[in-house]
Amino acid sequence: MSHYEVKIERRISSYSYIYRPPNSNIIWVSGLSISQIFKDRNKLSPYYIPKRLPHREQQINALLSIYGPMLKNIWSVYPRFTQIIGPTGTGKTCTTIKFGELIVERAQKEGIDLRHIYMNCKVDGVTRYVLYGNLVRKVTPKISFKSLSPEEMIRQLIEYLRFEETFLIITFDEIDYLVQMNPKEHVIYDLTRFPEFHPGEPLPIIGEIFIARSLKWHDLLESGERSTLGAGIIEFPRYTSKQIRDILEDRVEEAFQPNVVLDDTLELISDITANPPVNGDVRVGLELLYYSGILAENAGSNKVLPEHVRRVYSGINPTITAEDIMSLNKDGRIILLALVRGLKSSGSAYISLKELRKFYNIVCEEYHIKPSEDFENNVQDLIYRGIIDMKSLMEIGISGAALVDLEKFLDNLLRQIEDVERRV
User: Is 57 left (phi over 0), alpha (psi -120 to 50) or beta?
Assistant: First the structure.
């Protein structure tokens, strides 16, 4: 083990041997790996439900205002149907599960046995038979549903809940997928007509929540099904860059060691996530944060830098291609190279237009090119092409390619052009 750096660290009354492989930020302590980058990388999983859901308090409160009052007179309430609508990655599932935890806690304080059952229609079944069978299974193993029809499964479930004095709120996630796959199943007809199994009597299923990406799935429903769904719709708008940053800051605190992720790194990830083609899908932001941390760790860096983000993002979404660069005029390439140099020099996610002009003049001098009088128009052209990002005159950056790779390509390209022109 001579190729390892070995340290002995005093631990109260014992010693622990710490090994650090070269060019790595993983320390091995008595056979256990301890990352200097990550504290708990599981906190970056899109399936992790954090204690706090920034910018979804309004939606949680809306759900609580619908179902919370039902706890005051639980034995005489009728089911409420709510629709949650929003694009991918806007926190619909996390918010609903968090609501489920909160409403169950409230019910327990009232001495009520209430359960929130989460059903994902892509996972739990795209037919009534499979879906209802999995619903029954999640509630109790005491009901044998193999020989039952879908309708009989629901009847048996209701009878079981009545006997056990247990109440349910059921969430059906990806309901639009189920309806699109099997529009003739008329599953909404079943789910919204539970009260008809016991006319005039309250049910132990006090609520159903349907999650979908948009209201387009209504087009596949019959008019009666649309009517029974009601008008209870809670919308989940796309996250803004600032909101995404707030979300990621919470995750950074839970997932990373202190002071590892730079502010500029978070700002870049937030902007990438908020803008096309990601369009506010916070799950992509979490993935960028996770893999940027992995890249930093493997590279032996003690910080997660904007450059790590650019490398990861260019790998999964290479928005700047060789063809894009070849289609630029010489001044466009010079400005792009100047921006690369400026970003590398500052170590930040963005530089100002004034700084860009300074680096532009330096690069022009390096390549013996007279600075163009159309500098700002050429910058605007790069923005329109989607090659560079501009938030303001003080914030110009690149998200679609790694700076090192881009700089090498541009340098080689400009030198080749220079050689050709000399020969001419």
Answer: alpha
